[in-house]
Design goal:
- The chain is an all-alpha fold.
- The protein has one domain (11-207).
- It is 74% helix and 0% strand.
- Helix 2 runs antiparallel to helix 4 (57-82) and helix 6 (119-145) runs antiparallel to helix 7.
- 29% of the residues are buried.
């Protein structure tokens, strides 16, 4: 009976996509809550207001980075789902693990914004990105082995989706290693990687994650 249930459970791609959209929307909304307006009682001039806004720079940078990160991974998951013929229980739980990593993004973002000069905070942020990438890659490999991908999906497309994740994660890892020099170098490099994936040339859209 248990085996039969596992075979028939979690086969709705539509419900899985709806859950994913909801989690991403909530995580994206939580990011902006860390952008707090300077306390009014401490502001008595234009100069003090300007100074208060400058102090928000780390939070603003991390907000932009993480917004791009979630946007890139949302595109990656949706690209995969577009080529799925169906899903099963195991693939659903893999995507739920992916969403778990998504929900951690506001925390890792806030941590790095508060301690952007500390390597540990940068590593935690990178590990968050790594977890999302590993699970997304693993889910696509599982879908390929389990025969869940549409039959008309070209081999080039299947390879492009895998390659896109591998290259992106390699670049993120390179960015994380730059924290040996300084965390600002890492943050700047990761931000440039995200900008590239967000505005990649149209000719590369078939590979887009």
């Amino acid at each position: 009976m248990v085996t039969l249930y596992n075979k028939i459970a979690n086969q709705s791609l539509e419900r899985l996509a709806a859950l994913s959209d909801g989690v991403f929307a909530f995580a994206l909304t939580l990011l902006v809550l860390d952008l707090r307006v300077p306390v009014a009682d401490t502001i008595h001039s234009e100069h003090e207001l300007w100074h208060g806004l400058v102090l928000l720079t780390p939070s603003i940078v991390m907000y932009l980075m993480s917004f791009l990160t979630l946007g890139i991974f949302w595109n990656g998951q949706q690209t995969q789902m577009n080529y799925l013929a169906r899903c099963d229980r195991d693939l659903t739980w893999m995507y739920i693990l992916f969403l778990f990593a998504v929900t951690l993004t506001p925390f890792s973002t806030k941590l790095l914004a508060a301690f952007f000069a500390y390597r540990l905070a940068l590593v935690v942020y990178w590990l968050n990105i790594l977890l999302m990438g590993v699970v997304l890659y693993g889910s696509w490999r599982y879908a390929s082995r389990a025969g869940l991908i549409k039959e008309d999906a070209a081999v080039e497309i299947r390879r492009a989706i895998r390659r896109r994740v591998v290259i992106a994660q390699s670049l993120y890892a390179a960015g994380a290693l730059l924290c040996v020099i300084g965390t600002r170098w890492s943050i700047g490099f990761i931000f440039l990687v995200q900008l590239y994936y967000a505005v990649a040339p149209r000719k590369l859209q078939i590979n887009r994650v």
